[in-house]
Amino acid sequence: MSGKIDHQLFSAQALTQEPCPKCGAALQLRHGKHGPFLGCSQYPGCDFIKPLHQNDGHIIKELGVPCPACGHELVLRQGRYGMFIGCSHYPACHHIESFDTAPQAQAEETQIPCPDCGKGHLVERKNRFGKVFYACDAFPKCKFALNQPPVVGQCEACGYPLLIEKKLASGTKYQCADKKCGHTQTEIKNGA
Question: What does the record list as coiled-coil region(s) (predicted)?
């Protein structure tokens, strides 16, 4: 059994003493796929629910940047699917931005040409969990992506023009970025 105490459940027990604001019946603590919530005891006749976790878009931080839609300040909010940037004047203004389009979080271009399409360049991006990966900026036409930092160099085994950097306990190694090859080498060889 875990030693972690969920203080929200204690506050939920106190909230169950309050009547349902919709029909006046008792509220019950229930569990769903998004976590615990309070629900009316008269369900399905009454469909009142109240989530216990704060995933309602509450403000985490003010950013000091004007909203391009209305001019009010942009804020960092916590929502059901993670953090996002939105207008502080919500619900009058519905402007939102993802971290990829935010001015302070632009994807960094590595100036390494994409070995797959040859037209785009590899850029650093973050997935929805915050993990960094490198992908072609010609997406969606080119779907080339890497999980480790790319390095310009040639594979000793197959001649592929891109390597990935792997930091190991034994030192830094370079692996061929071509998934079919996967050759590992200790030095970067440039094409002749």
Answer: none
Q: Residue 109 corresponds to which amino acid? A: E
Q: What is the mean pLDDT of the chain?
A: 76
DSSP structure string for the chain:
------HHHHHHHHHTTSBPTTT-PBEEEEEETTEEEEEETTTTT---EEESS--EEEEEEEEEEE-TTTSSEEEEEEETTEEEEEETTTTT---EE-TTTSGGGPPPEEEEEPTTTSSSEEEEEE-TTS-EEEEETTTTT---EESS-EEE-B-TTT--SEEEEEEETTEEEEEES-TTT--EESS-B---
Token pair belonging to 150? 């790319």
Lowest-confidence pick of 31-35, 36-40, 52-56, 149-153? 52-56
